Amino acid sequence: MITGAIAVMTSGGDSPGMNAAARAVVRTAISEGVRVFGIYNGYKGMLADEIVELNSRSVSDLIQRGGTFLGTARCKEFKTEEGRRKGLDNLQKHGIEGLVIIGGDGSLTGGSLLSKEGGIPIVGLPGTIDNDVWGTDYTIGCDTAANTAVDAINKLRDTASAHRRIMIVEVMGHTSGWLAMTSGIASGAEYIIVPEVKYNIDEICEDIVDSYSKGRRYTIIVVAEGACSGVGLKNVVQDKTKIDTRVSILGHIQRGGSPTLEDRIKASMLGERAALGLISGVSDVIYGFDEGKIVTINLFDSVNNTKPLDPELVRLASVLV
């Protein structure tokens, strides 16, 4: 049981809803009579002692904001045992007895090492637009990012139709095709290319040429960046089809923006559960969602397993796309 102080940090790529989660951690801890510190700029800030005590007002006017008020940064030094010892020393200097980490696989892996080597209680919250953390159906920010991608594809469809073009839309996802698959299905894309599913570009191009000969005015191809380069794909498709082909790389626009209702509510629920769990003595877990309910996931299991792309999404795409 923690009665003194806990800390909260965000790490890795920012995602909409991180502020809502951190806000919930802070206000829940305070309501339980526990002090709470914010670690600014991720693990880099932990090593630089950018650790500040927060109060309820510190997290006001945040729930509607994208990004993360705590900031995030890469930190090679933390990947070393000496670096993690330095970070632990800084936490102990402030009397911090437990830590909530909001981030993706890499960030949560860092937390698991900190727990193993330093013995400090760690609770993780999955924060990544890729929705690729093992053990949970949902990660903070994925809903907002998918809606951002769908909105962009809807707009690109208009100009593709006007010019009878093939439009290739590259979305984020180095190893996970969740964002491409969901946004592609939801926007009615003709083709979706993801790292987890094999594809035949010759067959796709033949199908496109045939559909244009029958009167189709446009084609939308959504591709995850980890499957192939949007630019490279554009060159191949245009060469094979002889149809005007353009590419739009959505890039970091997918990370920003005001979080959706789902990301605000679910992030807040996870933040509250993380603070209560940590204070009550829980450690080495991640809180996530399974079929709409909060579940507890073993931290070490999560960071050592790879989340597969939902086969139901793949099946649905095969029927609808």
Describe this structure in words.
This protein has helices at 18-31, 42-47, 81-93, 105-118, 142-163, 178-187, 201-213, 230-241, 261-280, 299-303, 311-320; strands at 5-10, 35-39, 51-54, 96-103, 122-126, 166-171, 191-193, 219-224, 245-249, 285-290, 293-298. It has 321 residues and is α/β, with parallel strands linked by helices. The strands form two sheets. A seven-stranded mixed sheet has the order 3-2-1-4-5-10-11, with helices on both faces. A four-stranded parallel sheet has the order 7-8-6-9, with helices on both faces. Strand 4 (96-103), helix 4 (105-118) and strand 5 form a beta-alpha-beta unit. Helix 1 (18-31) packs parallel to helix 9 (261-280), helix 6 (178-187) runs parallel beside helix 11 (311-320) and helix 7 crosses helix 8 (230-241). The radius of gyration is 22 Å and the shape is elongated. The mean pLDDT is 96.
